[in-house]
Structure formats: structure tokens, C-alpha cells
């Protein structure tokens, strides 16, 4: 497998989900990505999760092994400063679980949204069944769940559409799911739930935002591939993954371990990846659209909201909550997406 191919596979696991045929309130779709959520008035606790109460989530800093140019060092420093919303949790120095974070933000006294709760809920698109069972239970307790999907406004994902229409990225994701003995997010989360609301760009809005800034899908993909190449150079390339692929009965476990750290690196790099103007449609543009919907929900009086997005979106969203909504992070809860101790 070439580096670029692996980078696309890793990015697919976190970043892109298919969109399926829908009708009026269930419109036709094309390509989806990760989603962020906000939490209820009494924040739901996840059974297998760890809870922390820092001002911001823990930060994982990528190590540097070879001399870097000034530009590369500046880029890595920016990424290192980003709070981590996905991590590999270790026990006794050994990888134990790939985890995603739910970070609770509360409106501060004297601000417009005093007392309102917004949870940023990071998610991966392939994970173990228990992970999605817990997420589904957690999401059911919010007043509103704002979810990610590059699709026409109002799109809902119906279970019967999943088998009828699958994009290339969806095929990659389902292939990874089967290889790793994991499950597929779109098949496990109930997107038809009454409290779910689409909060993302339409395909036309996505393209228009790119063109407005002189960007393009191909330039964006090139930046993502560059991030993947840099990540693999740091972690030693495909050697560990190739060894895991031929490791016999323990192949699923060994492959999950080999891929988990690379997935974390890809997500952190993507979170800090801007174009020449310091903007990007993939993260910041879509986050702006999501937060327009968030403002509508808060202004309508909803006080317990989840933003259900991929982990790469959350650092920018956290800044928006603090700077534009007068909110502060009060608690981080970690959930096990992949158990790295079992097949």
C-alpha cells in the first residue's frame, strides 16, 4: 500500500461518510464527514468513559525526530497547541484503547447564553458496537443534536438507504470495518431521532466556499495527502501496518494498534491545516455553518445541545464557543472507540 493510499484510508475512517437518497425532509445526498455534539442539562455519563475536569482537553504534542525547516516547525508547533479530542490511551505503557472526547461547555455568568450547556462530541466513523451503543444512549438525552453531513439542508439518513447507495469512501470504511472487526457509524446511530438536526454545508455551499477563496477540492486533497505523508514519515511509514496485516490470528488487534496512532496524527494535522489565507472549507467553513444552526437552537431556548462531529473539527469549535458564545470548557469525558487489547 502506498503512503497516499494509506493516508486516504486513515482519513476516511475519521473524516468522510456517504450520503444517501432522501426525500423532502430527507433530501438526496453525496458525501458526509464527522459530526460534533453538545450535551444535555444534566450531562449524560458514558459507562466505559473516563471523566476529567480541565479547562481544556489534554494536549498531545507530536515529537520531532529530524531537523525541520522554519515553516515545518511553525506548523508542528501550531498543531501541538491544539487540544486533543482523540487519543490512544495506554495502560502500563501499552496501548489500551483509541478514545474520543466529549467536552462540556457552559455559558458563563453575565453572558447571553448564561447556564446553557453545549457538548462537543467527537466521533470516529468505524468503532466497536459498545461505543455506538453508548453514544446512541448519550445523544438521546439532549434537547438537540447537531450532526455533520455535507448534504442538502434537512437531510436525514434512513437505514434502508445505506445498502442502496454507497460511495467509494463508504466502501473503504466498510472494508476497514470488516478487517478490524468493528462497526460502521451510519448503521449504528439513529439519525432519524426527533432531536437530530442537520448542521452542515450543502454540496453547493461547500464548492462555493472553496471557489470564493481560490481553493479547490483537489488542492484540499493535496494538503490532506501531504499531512498524511508527514504523519507517516514521523511514525515510520507502513512497516508496522504491513507486519500487522500478516500477524495471523491476532491480525485485527495488531492492525487496530498500528492504525490507531496514525489516525490520531492524521486528525491532529487536519485540525491545524489551513490554506494560504489561514482558512479552510473542510474544517472552518463547515464549522461556521454548524454554529449558525447552534445559535438558532440556543436563541430558541434550547439549553442542552450536542454538536456531533469528527474530532478534527473540535479545536476550532472550542475557540468559537469561548470567543463568540461566552462559554467555558468544564469537563472532558473519554469514550473507548476501539479496544486495543482484543481482536
TrEMBL record:
Keyword entries, A-Z: Signal
Signal peptide: 1-21
Ubl conjugation keyword on record: no
Compositional bias ranges of the Low complexity kind: 27-72
Chain intervals for the UniProt region annotation (Disordered): 27-82
Keyword Zinc tagged: no
Name of the protein in question: Secreted protein
